[in-house]
User: Fold these one by one.
Assistant:
Number 1:
Amino acid sequence: MGKEKWVVMTKKADFDAMAKRFKISPMLARIIRNRDVITTEEVDYYLNGTPEQMHDPGKMKDMEKGAQILLSAIRDGKKIRVIGDYDADGVCASYILKKGMTELGGDVSVTIPHRVTDGYGLNRRLVEAAYEDRMDVIVTCDNGIAARDEIAFAKSMGMTVVVTDHHEIPYEETEDGRKEVLPIADAVINPKQKDCQYPYKEICGALVAYKLIQVMCQLAQKEKEQLLSELLEFAAIATVCDVMDLLNENRIVVKYGLKLLGHSANPGLRKLIEVCGLSEREIGCYHIGFVLGPCLNATGRLDTAMQALELFAAEDERECTAIAIALKEMNDQRKNMTEQGVESAIRQVEENGYQKDQVLVVYLPECHESIAGIVAGRLKETYYRPAFVLTDSEDGLKGSGRSIEAYSMYDKLCEVKDLLEKFGGHKMAAGLSIKPENLEVLRIRLNQNAALTQQDMTAKVRIDIPMPMVYASREFAHELQKLEPFGTGNRKPMFAERNVRLRNCTVHGRHRNVAKFTLDDESGYRVSGVYFGDADTFMQEINQHNGYVNVVYYPELNEYKKNVSLQIVVSHYGFSD
């Protein structure tokens, strides 16, 4: 199983000066510096950034050009077809474009590819369907950058094509170095293009779509404050679900999007929040990433993602309720399928000795292709190495991969593209299709090319400050809330203390996945604590070491029946030799 190494972060700065300037504690200043937020401007943007300070969308290459093309099409009464993707980012991007362009007077319809019958992105069938429906314009969102042939086909049929995407730009190696291979569309809006001047490249497909609607509103000289405010919620959901770093403007989008979600204007979203047993006031990144997002994704996995889109568009209470319940039920079904898939994958790794491989390649013929990526993610977490899960599809094998920091999945697939029928993705995740006879060769070559060290394959627990728990006061726990929202790229701060005594441990939860206890440190300070995970193993290991343990923790304010108390959330634990 994957090992972990605890590392104390030692980034330097004048923490006292930073603390004084921004009226925060030096400890908070140190945590912010550990997120690579360095200059005074960056710190100010991190702590105090507002939607008005988001980057100028006009700086994105082809943004104004694309907006003008679409506004002209709307003025001329032309029919526009949005073609999205079946994940939460693609669904949110599709909704943003449909709602935004409809409000600006457009005749807009949406198609989302079916994961199993269509696969990812634009294909000839979708182009032909748009042509048969007499569409004049195709707008892609969260896809399109790799659909060079399909876009050429749409152009040959006389359609205008605007690409909005955020995925890596396909390239070919030439004598002069790497050359971008772009689709020949009427406008290609993707901040990852080399000559794009947009200052922050790591935004999701829905935020690219949001920026396009923003520019269209500006050029049309339409005041659409309410519309843009409502659409920001969907850009926030997509940013979290697509696992974007919560830094720079992504942080602003999610911070303000969460505030809006607390009293959403969208009836469908409100109903989904209710059906999932959440209170609108408590929505945080965790709830988007692990409760609401999976319900939106489940529909694209097991049925058609058009259902999630219909939920966002629904206004009738009964319709909202019916769709929201269907999405939740589908996600519950998806969870059961995932657990079975993970068990099969781990059994295959152990029985075949794959745990010696640097890159895991697992073939699960029974696995629903839509959950291959989730199973790959769980394998990556278990063994801490890149993992691909492949399964049977209509025309060969299809799969998904999830990666670790030291391994760029997209680049490594480029090195074996002669074996692949189709592939795409980015550094941390990818999708591919392959002929069955190439599977074993793929495993061998990916491992030959992996170049990973033992250090690369050891998960790092990054500790912000080694700190006795006595300093983790209620006031400090309250101050830490200034760093929210937490998520990828802006993780919860981690503190550590050695040789803590753990007493009165009890196990809770239907799955015995919560341990509650009291922590005593060497100074005699006592505080209540909680651990989420395999609580039985946790207790067993603690007892073997007479209750003495080293902990990585986070101080949290726990509110119960209007009483607020401090509790220490233990995220990792270990024992001194």
Note: The two ends are 20 Å apart (CA to CA).
Number 2:
Amino acid sequence: MGRFSKGKANSEEAQIFQGFFARMQKFAYICSHKRTNPKNMKKTFMTIAISAAMMMPFSACQEAQRENPLLVESQQPFGTPDFSKIQPTDYLPAFEVAIQQKRDNIQKIVDNKKPATFANTILPYEESGRLLDRVSRVFFALTEADKTPEIGETEKKVMPMLTELENEISFNKQLFARIRQVYDKEFPTLQGEDKKLLEEIYKEFVRKGALLPEEKMERMKAINLRITDLQQQWGDLLQAATNEAVVWVKNKEELKGFSEADIAQCAKDAESRGGKAPYAIVIVNTTQQAPLVSLDNRDLRRRVYEASVYRADGTNKFNTYPLVVEIASLRAEQAEIMGYPNYASYSLEKTMAKTPENVYAFLNSLIAQYVPKADAETKAIEEYARKSEGKGFQLQPYDRFFYSAKMKKELLNVSDDEVKPYFDVDSVLVNGVFYAANRAYGLTFKQRTDIPLYHPDMKAFEVIDKDGKTKALFYCDYFRRPTKRGGAWMDGFAKQSRQWNQIPIVFNVCNNAKAPEGKPSLLTWDEVTTMFHEFGHALHGILSDCQYNRLSGTSVARDFVELPSQFNESFATIPEVFDHFARHCETGEPMPADLKERMLKSINFQTAYALGENLAATCLDLAWHMLPSGKVPSLEQAAAFETEALRQVGLLNPQIPPRYRTTYFNHVWGGGYAAGYYSYLWTEVLAVNVADVFAQRGALNPKTGQDFRDKVLSRGNTGDLMQMFTDFTGMAQPDASSLLKARGL
């Protein structure tokens, strides 16, 4: 990581130097931006420097000229973060300087005596936090993907600073007065992205409370600060709970059913987590766990399932319910202050769905069709299990995947162990994900080994457009480790912006198992589609062509942002693409035709479960956020509230639990999906409709790809999202009837 991140040899010297450097940077910045007397500035600066230097070790003085790499333009290709120079101790002083710079830039807008215009108010506001954006993007990439103790401690200090800054800006009456003047005078005459930028900025201020009376503004500020603190606690607690939920296994015999590669991974995971036993089964963020497919040992299956379900509900030393209850209460109060009956109504106003009523109408139509299919699926699995286990056998949720896999093997003659050798992670990436992007959009990918990375597992690729010009830089970080949170995601070190002359620098992160040195890392089909999914998000960033940073790439409503990603999954099953990446990891031979046919048929085998777990999680999210202020259950009532919420919508089914229970629902309590988890199903409808258009025109037809690129992927949030969908598909409204068909239901 950095020069002072390991060992004790330089630790004291490093602390002295870093503290001095941070203070000097901050003082120099203040001197250059505040109204400091220029006659005294040089003298004062030199006095402090000399005095401080006299107290420092000589070697630390030698380092005093070092620039914080986060505060200067990177000299790396395309301005990528220079992780060869960035040290953990650089982040806090960088945030201090960047936050102060944004404060000063905002003050310059406020102090402008000229009448407010788009040019002297909106454009400077868009530009005001450019340094802070750069620092934040690098830092928060690490808090998610490589959260070392040092990064975690810095995060605790940084989050309140950022929330305080956000409060200052959101409730700055003079600043909002100027923005409002521009909105009132120029909005009717502005065109294109200028008009959209003004609209987004104005409405953002209004939604945050800029029109509130003083006492309500102060309460909103306090709520914002408290929610930030609670979400920080949530992230720390959930990661600790998930890491602690590891299931330790004493002997290899208990792992019967696992492949040798799986057993080797368990041994590796045990070693990396302290070696309390020879083997360890690591828990991921969802309720169901992949090992339940293969484990013969029923008691071990039970232990794995219960470790997942009870990881943070107070049955052990971890309990996130207190955080859930308080966050839900504060969100409900926010909505009440803003004049909404509940947080869901407040949050959904800015989405395609618009209202909770529209979301529930959509969900209820799916639930009505889903429930009988789910019951039939459960009955079929239990009857199958009883053939070998006896008539009295009662199927449990930790049994379902095991017997479903056996049933699939018997009926379709296919298993994960049979197909995984054809899904090597490198082949899926290069010969699948990249190949599809090349065929559909004309992109090519060149690996760059000269660009510093934040972890050795990462790779970086230059993305070259069909005109031969560099379009973007793409990083991938696919293997799990204890410092990485669960799940898979896309983000970026920089968003595309013509205004800033900035190409997109985006990354995908997953949590796949890494094989031992010299062995290929093999994927399940679900992990294959996850890679295609996340790269769909990446394409939304890579192909962005917008004027303004605020509007570019994935800066769209939650119930639209998943459209490119879910649609991109469809490329994985296109025969030309599948045949190109599904090759044996040792021989390079393509998957045999009969195995391919059986595997593709198996994709939609017993898919009611996947839909049901998603519907249940979605309804839990909405239930918590439909509560009015003062009606959020107490800590003691929280678990019962979850049960009752599922019962009321007809989804209380122990065989098909929510994909995320309340206590580990990171999307909702730690992420940005509060009252928005429905968006995965909503956008799946959009994605299926888009895939149908591609199929009709030619799935890999470059003209179709260019059309989708021009009308959707490149446009960010520069226009009406439903109109973008209509422009490409020709459909006035999405057709939800195709969803169940696409899922094989």
Note: The two ends are 49 Å apart (CA to CA).
Number 3:
Amino acid sequence: MMNLSSTTMAAVAMLMSLLPAVEAPAPKTAAAATATKPETIAELKPEPKAESKAEIKANARKEIDKFFASNGPIPTLSFNFSKPEEWEYLKKENRRYAECEMTDVEFPEKIWRGVAVKLKGSAGSFRGPEDKPGLSVSMEKYKKGEPWRSIGKFHLNNGAQDNSYLNEQIAGEMARMAGVPASRCTHAFVSFHGKDFGIYVVKEGFEPDFLAHFFKKTDGDLYDGGFCHEIDTNMEKDHGDPADRAAIKQLMQACGEGDVKKRWEKLDQILDVDAFLSFMAMESILCHWDGYNFNRNNYRLYLNADSGKFVFFLHGMDQMFGDVNAPVIRDSGSMVGNAVFSNPLWKAAYRDRVEKIYTDVLTAVDWPSRVVEEGKKVQAALAAKNPQLGKDYQGQINSARDRVAQRIAMVGKQLAMAPKPPVFDAGGVMKLTKGWMGVDGGGGNSRTDEVQIDGKRTFHIIAENSSAMSWRTTIQLLPGKYRFEALAKCKGVIATNDAKGRGTDLRVSGNQTKAEQFLEGDSDWKPVSITFESSGGDAILVAELRAAKGEAWFQAESLQLVKLK
């Protein structure tokens, strides 16, 4: 071993003090010893950023979309009341929320606590808490509540008025395809406070997630029409400032405006008229007798925050397709519907809207097959629980399929028969050769018939005694001034003169204007006409003979309507 002198040791110490300090390396852990050092800076990955509120909402809505579009197993939900006082409270105040817990068989380790539930339904569908009740479920009403499958609120319909459990689902799909807001639906098995109540319809609530499908902004005012209430009642406001009712008052005032032109201007400012036409068309097409336009029931009303105009939502569609022969083109009994239909242009646009929905929605999809597709899913789930239930359900599938098919066919038939708005040529003339019907207003041998004279088709009237017999047709007119004209001849006409007309002439039923020309006695072919003003709507055109005796003929090819302005 080498021994260093004290002088040498001092020199080494002095040299070491002049060198830069070097930290001793930290001892390597097992993890550090096995880690691989990145070769470039680009390989260093930043920490993931926390999701923004907008991203969380967007992802939640994707999950909701996935749930309602799923072909997976039908969920099984169980609602239990661990607090006896909450169950007693629900039995006494069943229209108010009570607190319970909920489980979903697909998530066996999970219990949703603080779930708010109340009973729902009206006269036909309401059932008590121990008799398969319809339920409204809010997952986040109480503190620490959690959404179920990203859904904050939903409804469970008991099928009391729809044994197929398919009406609202299929009707809603049709409505959304036509651009009319309606909730999506699927199915679930439900047990409630220890009782297994079987299959239910799961329906999404009218929440921001629902509104986001139809509107850019979801913070507008949302009103619940309630049970058989018009918009002029004190409707419940589900979203928005409860004290602010300026917009709904504006809509009511517009509907009640006495001056029709001002009414239409005011309506157009506060109501999305185009959306309302589609809404009313779908209520008619779906046979929704218990909706807004025909019973002032089952609807929601939303003030679109972008346009500042109201939009109606379909709701309560468990009794759809019931009367397959119901008229698809008919007047509304509602305040808003009547106000809209008072405008002939909007009324004509309604007919066009029904025809467009028939073409673009009803005949564009094989809806009877769609009914069967969804019905088979329910049937399979029922059969898995009880094979007999699955067999019995087949009749419900068949019945729902047939109702939908028959309704679509009837809508097409009614549209083919319905009078269409007149189409004028470039000269403002529309020929009226079709759609005429003879109307007998006399007795004895008085009659109407069609005959050929000189190779020309004519509408013929014979009066053997005092009568007012006619040929009539109905057309739809837009507001304006018109001249109704034809070539006529008569023989042996002894004219009678009253407030409506005289001899062989033309007139418009309900219009006080008299014809410019009339024929009596014996006359060869001569023109007859009447010029009149129309405020729009249906017009009954009349070619008549008012006489004690005689004959008259109207040349079919000469009957025409001329638009003057």
Note: Confidence is low (pLDDT under 50) at residues 1-45.
